[in-house]
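Appendix C reproduces, verbatim, an entry submitted by the partner laboratory led by Prof. M.T., so that reviewers can inspect both the input and the predicted structure.
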Amino acid sequence: MASYDARTALDAIHHHQEQTRDAYVRHGSSFPYLFVSALAVFGFSAAYDLPNPWRTLTLLAAGGLMAGMLFAHQRRAPVRRKPSGAEWVFSLWLGGVAIVILVAAMIGARLLGFSTPGVVAGAVVAVATLAAGYATRPVIKAITRRDDRS
């Protein structure tokens, strides 16, 4: 095998790896999954304002929606790869930021005298979830690129 052939093959491998990373990131931040996640987050937060039998049903529906979305997300993934430690840390960090936003929105809604602070806070966090899904796409792409090269 000539060095040119080896270089061409290596370039093709790198190109396919880049396509795989792009498909992984694109699927992970696609609108249907982000929308269902935002809807489930809204449901979890809005359940706070409901009386007990409806609260339980809303929590179960939001949990079922989230579980169904995660199942469909995994089954329909065009690329299967194990998330790296950095991806897990980043995901947990994003979850922590969402919780901080939820608590701050809940406190703000209570201070402003809203009768349903959970619904207001849930709407704020749902919008933040949608925005974060698109805003973090370059960061996730950079994390997957760095993890695949190390």
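The radius of gyration is 20 Å. Additional entries are available on request from the coordinating office.
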